[in-house]
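All the exercises in this workshop are built on plain-text protein records. An example says more than a description, so a record of this kind follows:
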Amino acid sequence: MAVSLRGVTTVLLPGTGSDDDFVYRAFSTALHEVGAVAITPPPQPHRLVTGYREELDNAARAAHPLPIAVGGVSIGAAVALDWALGHPERTVAVLAALPAWTGEPDAAPAALAARHSAEMLRRDGLVATTAQMQASSPKWLADELTRSWVNQWPALPDAMDEAARYIAPTSGRLEMLDVPLA
């Protein structure tokens, strides 16, 4: 099913520890080329998932009666998918990059990594943990996360823990999605 995003409000949510600047740069050129109106709300690390849901609700209210497109990266993609499943009449499409997991987070590598990073941040602090992350990450990712981690400190470990507990839509629920998923 083809969907035109021309004039469509498209809300994109960043992944855990990432930010609105990154997700805007990652998606905006392609979205602007098709005429979409890209909105990338900043994460609220002290209330990550609730903040994302409120941003989606606010964008849908502002666009009413037109539906919106939703999406994001990692946990942002998972929250957007869940919101779209709960609001099919308000959603025209979902753009999900690297959804963190489906269903329970227990053994998901992304959830384990988020819990580990949160623990390191609390134990070793921002500077030491950031240095360890930089040493084990590609330069582009290290640069992105260094910038966003500093901006989300000191609530960053709480955001990581919240994300690691998030129960994402299951594969069965995703089969019920009525709009295009890219």
Remarks:
- The beta strands are 9-13, 37-39, 68-73, 91-97.
- The chain has two domains: 9-103+167-174, 109-165.
